[in-house]
Amino acid sequence: MKHIVVTGTRGIPHVMGGVETHCEELYPRVVKRGFNVDVIRRKSYVSDGLNEWEGVGLIDLYSPKIKAFEAIVHTFLAIIKAKFIGADIIHIHAIGPALLTPFARMLGMKVVFTSHGPDYNREKWGCFAKAMLKLGERWGTNYANEVIVISNEIDHILKEKHHRNDCHIIPNGVPAPIFQNDTEYFKSLGVESRKYILAMCRIVPEKNLHHLIEAYAKLKKQGLANDIKLVIAGDSDFDDDYSKRLKKMAKENDVIMTGFVKGKKLQALLSHARCYVLPSSHEGLPIGLLEAMSYHLPVIVSDIPAHTELKLGNNSYFHLGDIEDFTHTLNKNIETDFQSVEYDMSRYDWENIADKVCDVYQVCFKKNKKN
Predict the structure, then answer these.
(1) In contact, 38 and 57? CB cutoff 8 Å
(2) 12 CB contacts (<8 Å, ≥6 apart)?
(3) Which terminus of the chain is less hemmed in, N or C, by CB atoms within 10 Å?
């Protein structure tokens, strides 16, 4: 049985983040396809005491809870651990951890690298961190045995910048929706069915939740959303200046912040929302957006490539950073009766995605690729 060790994620299960959700959905399915999988978790993010979940082994290693260093330190330790336990492949997720791809190759391991997007575009990073992330993208792309990208846009970036023309395009997925008729949770928040706008993401600057609150406040001031609430489901990894400012802004504008939610609570929010909103300046392929689409919600998103690639229709897009256009697009949704939307979600089936990832592993085993 081939042994896959996974790093680049904070951990699974029930850890906030897109890469974390990706790994939580993917690796139990990989195990069912005959692979032995260990996910190496960051100790500072987990406290469940688990060493196995859904057939996936869980190994907890130290990581400093310092934004600029936790991923690279943890990945270094994870690669050493993977070598020690005899991994056939180490699968590195995201461009920051991919900085250590050459190190893993030097130790004689095969590497699969998944790029979840150009994280150096995130506003939270300073000049040095951006430079390291760009180097991580380059080294991961150039030195990994096989490279997976989650969107056509990322594939284009790696072709143009690093001349890697054999990437495997395998998107994020979304499980089948579980509609919740029980309204107890969202009633406890003080909202009514189809009378709230839902945002669902981590609280970080590039998600532009401050733009969402600003647009919502403009609608309220104009008397256009008096019976509509705004619910933001998510939290921050670090209690930094941005998260503090956003929470203060939310409180001042009567915005409901739920914190990080999963399971039935999140299903209830998705089952009864009026629309889903994501005003990000940077994304790979947002799982939260795919989840909202699976629940047939109208979606309102910024016109960045990661969103326009989905071809959602003109009423779904507003110009990034344009508060007037954002407010106008929100108002168009609010002033009409709710209508569910049927999206083609066949491309985002996790079972098919797991098959494709396992195919990449098999290719990696068969090839003795030198980069």
Answers:
(1) yes
(2) 20, 23, 24, 27, 39, 41, 53, 56, 58
(3) N
